[in-house]
Design brief:
- By secondary structure, this protein is an all-alpha fold.
- The chain is built from 3 helices and no strands.
- The N and C termini lie far apart (59 Å).
- The mean pLDDT is 83.
Length: 105
């Protein structure tokens, strides 16, 4: 993972270790626990939240997922015969052109 992560700035406040933060993020995602309820041995939740946002803005998560997909495909462990797109979150426009109500001519 460290190949994907940005280098910390040399100035300013010392950065919390990336490994600790990523462990907390993975724990958070796997348990659906609230940040405030995280075990005390993890860094503060706000630190992890900021790091999630930072990694997202830098495209770190996209890079990791893309490379994992390629590795799994290369190993023959990913079957893309059936693909599905979930449109439940797609915004629909009211009154789209060509739409007609029942009985309308």
């Amino acid at each position: 993972m460290k190949d994907y992560l940005p280098f910390p700035a040399k100035t300013g406040r010392p950065r919390v270790d990336d490994r600790e933060v990523i462990n907390e993020i993975l724990y958070f995602l796997s348990t659906a626990i609230r940040w405030n309820d995280m075990p005390k041995y993890y860094p503060p939740g706000v630190t992890c939240w900021r790091r999630i946002k930072e990694y997202d803005e830098l495209g770190v998560w996209d890079d990791i997922i893309r490379d994992l997909q390629h590795k799994v495909l290369d190993l023959g462990k990913l079957n893309l015969v059936n693909g599905y797109i979930d449109g439940s979150l797609a915004e629909s426009k009211k009154g789209a052109k060509g739409s007609k109500l029942f009985g309308e001519v």
